[in-house]
Design goal:
The chain has four helices and ten strands. It is about 15% helix and about 25% strand. This is DUF1989 domain-containing protein.
Length: about 220
Amino acid sequence: MVFPEFSNSLSHVEYHQRDHQRSALKTHVIPAAHGYAFQVKKGEHFRVVDLYGEQVVDFAAWVQGTDLREKLSMAYTRFHLDGVTPAVGEYLWTNNDEPILQVVDDTVKVHDMTFMSCFPKMYEKEGIKGHRSCAGNISEAMAPYGMNGVLDVTDPFNIFQNTPNYSLKALGSSKPGDYIEFKAMKDIICAASCCPYDLRGFNGGKVTDVAIVTGLST
């Protein structure tokens, strides 16, 4: 089955990629409230695409060959960028003080670097048992790479999350087809969680699918 919204979003992606070779393009749709892990080689580009709008994506990355020790660090990134989210051309950094990703395109420009992933206990304290969480999604997706559980999940880069001035506000910022594109500065393993938080109007009040597009040429 082809969903019209997804078809439109792919057309949007392809339109902006018209100067790229598309032979290696691969698109993986992450179902609402679930996660996905994927590998990217140094120099390759990939995109995180919001298919329906106002959907936050918790994103994390690790340098291959380090047993998940060297990883994307929001603390180091905040240090290098004076607490401001990265603009096009700027880098995200690892806990080994090395650039791991460069932002090469961004149609939203509003993201968050301060909040942790939602986690099982957060929902349990709300009286909700068995609710999916970003920490659970990431640990589940990263299990084949050696992650043992939610306590191994690092603080994420919260893509499309609108929390200006570091104060949590349930405000949508992304529209259908919006995306952020990265260039990998190292061989990396990435994990993305389609945030399951569906309380208080967050994620537009309804969790929806997102897409990962890999194989983009430089």
